[in-house]
Amino acid sequence: MIDVFKGSFTQQEPIPDEGIAAALEVLKSGRLHRYNVVEGEISETALLEQEFAAAMGARFCLAVASGGYAMGCALRALGVKPGDRVLTNAFTLAPVPGAIASVGAVPVFVGVTEALTIDLEDLAAKAEQADVLMLSHMRGHLADMDALMELCTARNVKVIEDCAHTMGAKWKGRLSGTDGVVGCYSTQTYKHLNSGEGGLLITDDEEIAARAIMLSGSYMLYERHLAAPAAEVFERIKYDTPNVSGRMDDLRAAILRPQLRKLDAQCEAWNARYRMVEAGLAETPGLTLVERPEAEQYVASSIQFLLLDWTEGKIADVLARCANRGVELKWFGSDKPAGFTSRYDSWRYAPSKPMPASDRILKGIVDMRLPLTFSLQDCALIARIIRAEVSAVHQFR
């Protein structure tokens, strides 16, 4: 009898009861807007910002409408202008080059290694082309942050970290998002905190924080923020910083605050599932697992493996055979975007040149979500299915 997995790759855990109760209180009040508070009241959003800043060890935090908005807001707060060039990963998702394009800037794509991290040699070669790097920790893989920051500091390149997939991850004990000048996070449904849609931005730079708050649409109500700079910082920038509204509302903040308190435990639960699948795929013929460096403390809410130098037809066969047994795999090698996958040359608004070494790696990347609704037994079954189908196709390559 052939094993078939019957679970859902898009089913997330329910919102904690504490979050549901807090959300109901917000709904009963009718005051969903973050600045619509009664005298003496602190909004759920302001409290979330204070708590997230503390959790990340940052001075300032801003809650916004999405992770993509957080990145665009960070670029504007850093003074990126139309026509400026911004370095970013070739292996990333559409919101990253989209955020760059949203401010009229031009992405400069940097290659990817077999570790699925940004290619530091290619970054060094291209660093003179831009003053900002939008660093995507794509699918939860951290580059050597010591080497990257040394390179960028030496070339006066400011780093914005896209931590949509690395909330809670660390490099040598330092939390992801705290090495760069700004860290951006997503709370979209498939991320480590779930409010359906949403984002968070952290920084230790008071002027960047003030500009971001004004950009998000504070309407001069910045005194209602807790994780914000002093009023005199706003006085310097408030009349020349435009309103590009993208605030988070209190309903989403109420849902997120209890989840934040559980973040460490949730991260370990994801990693347990990752390790189960990783162990089950070890030494599968034709399949390359991604090595994780000792300095990295990852948060693996998904897993990736490589089918390097396989033909498109054979990879498509693996995906189809796994799908027939209930296992949904995504492939980053297609020349057309499919679902949540895309390539650096998929975005026609962002000019690019062929990158043969990176193209070879992208051609082989297979990706799979690991929702916490999966049990460890589910993960072991999924690994057996992938292993069997990859092995079956590999022997006929």
Write up what this structure looks like.
This protein is of the alpha/beta class. The protein folds into 2 domains: 17-261, Aspartate Aminotransferase, domain 2, CATH 3.40.640; 263-394, Aspartate Aminotransferase, domain 1 (Alpha-Beta Complex). It has 13 helices and 14 strands. It has helices at residues 17-29, 44-56, 67-77, 95-102, 120-126, 145-154, 206-217, 231-237, 250-261, 263-281, 312-324, 356-364, 376-394, and strands at 60-64, 85-89, 106-110, 132-136, 158-162, 170-171, 174-175, 182-186, 199-203, 288-289, 296-297, 302-306, 330-331, 365-369. The strands form 3 sheets. A 7-stranded mixed β-sheet has the order 1-9-8-5-4-2-3, with helices on both faces. A 4-stranded antiparallel β-sheet has the order 10-12-14-13. A hairpin with a 2-residue loop joins strand 6 and strand 7 (174-175). Helix 10 packs parallel to helix 13. It is globular. The mean pLDDT is 96.
Q: What key attributes describe this structure?
A:
397 residues, alpha/beta, Aspartate Aminotransferase, domain 2, Aspartate Aminotransferase, domain 1, seven-stranded mixed β-sheet, four-stranded antiparallel β-sheet, 13 helices
In CATH, what is the homologous superfamily of the largest domain?
Type I PLP-dependent aspartate aminotransferase-like (Major domain)
What is the structural class?
alpha/beta
- Helical proportion? 25-40%
- From the alpha carbons, calculate the radius of gyration and give it in angstroms: 21 Å
User: Under the CATH scheme, which class of the largest domain?
Assistant: Alpha Beta
Alpha plus pi helix count: 13
CATH topology of the largest domain: Aspartate Aminotransferase, domain 2
What number is the mean pLDDT?
96
Q: Classify the beta-strand content into a percent band.
A: 5-15%
Main sheet record: 7 strands, mixed
Query: How many separate domains?
Result: 2
Succession of helices and strands: HHEHEHEHEHEEEEEHHHHEEEHEHEH
In the CATH hierarchy, the architecture of the largest domain is 3-Layer(aba) Sandwich
Low-confidence stretches: none
Determine the N-to-C terminus distance: 26 Å
With strands numbered from the N-terminus, the spatial order across the biggest sheet is: 1-9-8-5-4-2-3
- How many distinct beta strands? 14
Quick one: overall form?
Answer: globular
